[in-house]
Write a structure and sequence with these properties.
The chain is an alpha+beta fold. It contains seven helices and 22 strands. The strands form seven sheets. Strands 9-10-15-13-14 form a five-stranded antiparallel β-sheet. The structure holds flavin-adenine dinucleotide (FAD).
């Protein structure tokens, strides 16, 4: 690994006599803590932000030339970074843009997800309103197939543009090629980096009030308009999720276990085991929603992981159900 600054103050990398210069700024030893919502973790050896596919291509090229592992970062709201950081190149996707073609919304992978929801609602387009106020980027939302209040992002997805890091080419994947499942997709395991997506929305007034909290909220109004649905979701979520300005968290730490095709409500199990509000120093389980692990201040990534393992162990001991994290561990633990 021998990155050097060339005369134009940009990184270049030498490999077999070849010198490549990079337009984007690749920084060394960048703290990741404040780029995540858990607010823990160490540094990335190498770090860059990419605002276009051509910058992404350069970043991937840099990683290949220097044999660096790559981690693709969005809004950092579904990850736990190791205290020793990430030994490789972290590429933060900042490819922006939202445009509309009739009922379709085309969005850059680095766009803030909730901005997409808000703007679609302003355009009177139905389809993603129940996914209001979920932190993170469009790319992270698709990679994790986000879901809330009876909806998943895959329900309204048409295609995904990806950059294939193996052959450095951009291709379009149809929804059926993305292998979506509960909080899972092809993007969690392979060499595709999401650069752009297309959502198929609708002007038809059709809201999904099937989930119990929303059903209850709208018990006297079964045809609320988009803005009312968004505002209801905002209120419901405010009562469940900790304030990210005050506390560190990545939302639901664990997945609901799926047994013989049936999703089991882990929150109920944790509640029955009296684990709601459980606290060990700076780390604990939310009092409002037991799937959420909170960093109350000075917890380390190791503290979070150890605590989560204790929770999983207790659940297994009492119920014989194995639970797995929803969040992604970044770096060595
Ligand atoms: C308070 C709070 C509430 C939450 N509520 C919900 C909820 O209701 N429902 C829900 O499903 N989730 C929820 N989450 C989890 C989180 O917000 C989502 O998973 C979010 O979509 C993650 O997006 P991100 O951009 O932050 O991804 P990151 O955390 O940065 O990354 C997550 C994963 O996606 C990959 N990734 C990111 N961008 C790309 C890309 N462009 N191409 C390929 N891979 C990529 C990363 O490599 C990583 O594996 C919540 C989190 C918090 C903190």
């Amino acid at each position: 690994m021998n990155p050097v600054r060339n005369n134009s103050n940009k990184y270049s990398s030498k490999n077999s006599g070849e010198v490549i210069s990079y337009r984007m700024n690749i920084k060394q030893n960048v703290p990741l803590k404040n780029l995540t919502t858990f607010k823990v973790g160490g540094c990335a050896n190498y770090f860059c932000k990419v605002k276009s596919v051509s910058e992404l291509k350069e970043a991937v090229d840099f990683s290949k030339k220097n044999s660096l592992q790559v981690f693709v970062l969005g809004g950092g709201s579904n990850i736990l970074v190791s205290d020793s950081g990430f030994n490789g190149l972290v590429i933060k996707i900042e490819i922006k843009g939202i445009s509309y073609e009739d009922e379709k919304a085309i969005c850059g992978a680095g766009e803030n997800w909730d901005r997409v929801v808000e703007s679609s609602i302003q355009n009177k387009l139905y389809g993603i309103e129940n996914l209001s106020f979920i932190p993170g980027t469009v790319g992270g939302a698709v990679a994790g197939n986000i879901g809330a209040y009876g909806m998943e992002i895959k329900d309204n997805l048409e295609w995904v543009e990806v950059f294939d890091t193996k052959n450095l080419k951009t291709i379009i994947l149809k929804k059926s090629e993305c292998k979506f499942d509960y909080r899972d997709s092809i993007f969690k395991k392979n060499n595709f980096i999401i650069t752009k997506i297309c959502l198929k929305l609708s002007y038809e007034e059709n809201v999904n009030l099937s989930y119990k909290d929303i059903k209850e909220y709208f018990k006297n109004n079964n045809t609320p308009k988009l803005k009312k649905v968004r505002s209801a979701i905002g209120k419901i979520r405010k009562n469940k999720f900790p304030d990210l300005k005050k506390y560190g968290t990545a939302g639901s730490f664990f997945k609901n276990p799926v047994i013989e095709g049936n999703k089991i409500h882990l929150a109920k199990i944790l509640d029955n085991l009296d684990m709601k509000g459980l606290r060990e120093g700076s780390i604990g389980i939310s009092e409002k929603q037991p799937l959420i692990i909170i960093n109350y201040g000075s917890a380390s990534a190791k503290d979070v992981k150890t605590f989560s393992e204790k929770v999983a162990h207790k659940v297994y001991k009492k119920t014989k159900i194995k639970i797995t994290p929803e969040i992604i561990f970044v770096g060595k633990f």
